[in-house]
Design a protein that fits this description.
single chain; 312 residues; 70% helix; 0% strand; globular
Length: 312
């Protein structure tokens, strides 16, 4: 295990239980991210089609009976995925339903990326698990993986690549859309925060839970533009350097902590929650089962050395 921590830019081997807990927790996030059939919002059209909705009419997902069937198919697929069974069938089922439903949701004119990482990781794992299956289907010889690695290691590795790419792209887009002036212009986000306050107020004709919090933070940003640039610039730097999570396990842990801190800061100051992103980061980057096992082995190894030396 020590070697998998110290190697740089290489696919780390995942133990059976580590990968099992990753699958189990991620399956929970996928299930959590879709609404229960009883709480579906009516979406009988896709007036602002995005992605697949430009080519496919996805409104069939909004039919209560169809969605109920798809929802329970997804639950079944996630159970199989958690158990590591029939992955070439379970992953495309889960990914297809999740991507289709979220695409329909994003085609209503209020596009957001709350579920983006979840869908992308499902898609990446689907592609990886199909590689050996498709080769077998067409009579091709199996690919020879590096010694000690299994296909599950590549499913986890490409999940990490998806996370890294998503954050780096988010940072790059900020710079592109502002002609490189994002940090300089960042205090202007105070205006957006006040617009959000006004929008939420007029939606319900009452202030939401973080109305006063946003107003206070917006005023602070206006009064302290350089402090704002420092804090928001740090957040941008975390996004741009997210590729470092691919260096090794230790770097993944460090970047995971930074990314969680970034989201926590956004939540505390702006009232914008990124709960699914935070859950995915905790599962694949923080990776508590691995580090708990690693720390436990270190502690017991030291105790064992102490017992041996006392015997001598």
């Amino acid at each position: 295990m020590q070697q998998t921590i110290s190697k740089y830019w290489q696919v780390p081997a995942r133990g059976f239980w580590e990968w099992f807990f990753m699958r189990l927790c991620f399956a929970g996030v996928v299930w959590w991210s879709l609404p229960h059939p009883g709480s579906m919002v009516v979406m009988d059209s896709q007036p602002y089609p995005t992605g697949l909705a430009n080519y496919i009419d996805l409104t069939f997902f909004a039919d209560p009976q169809v969605y109920r069937i798809c929802y329970y198919l997804l639950c079944g697929a996630l159970i199989l995925y958690s158990l590591g069974l029939l992955l070439p069938l379970a992953l495309p089922t889960a990914a297809g339903i999740h991507i289709g439903m979220i695409t329909l949701h994003n085609s209503q004119g209020a596009t957001h990326h709350s579920f983006q990482l979840v869908s992308l990781i499902l898609l990446a794992q689907w592609v990886v698990c199909w590689i050996p299956w498709v080769r077998r289907l067409f009579g091709k010889p199996p690919l020879k993986l590096p010694e000690g690695l299994k296909w599950r290691d590549y499913m986890a590795w490409y999940s990490l690549q998806v996370i890294a790419a998503a954050y780096v792209i988010a940072g790059v887009i900020k710079l592109i859309n502002t002609d490189g002036r994002w940090i300089i212009d960042s205090p202007n986000l105070a205006v957006q925060m006040m617009k959000t306050n006004a929008q939420n107020y007029y939606n319900w004709l009452q202030a939401d839970a973080v109305y006063e919090q946003r107003a206070t933070v917006a005023q602070f940003m206006i009064d302290n533009p350089n402090v704002t640039r420092l804090f928001l610039g740090t957040g941008l730097l975390i996004e741009l350097l997210a590729f470092l999570l691919l260096v090794n396990r230790a770097w993944a842990l460090v970047m995971g902590v930074f990314i969680l801190a970034l989201h926590w800061g956004i939540d505390m100051t702006m009232g914008l929650t990124f709960k699914y992103q935070m859950a995915v980061v905790a599962i694949f980057l923080i990776n508590v089962p691995f580090w708990a096992g690693w720390l436990g082995r270190k502690i017991f190894a030291k105790k064992g050395e102490g017992m041996l030396s006392s015997d001598v």
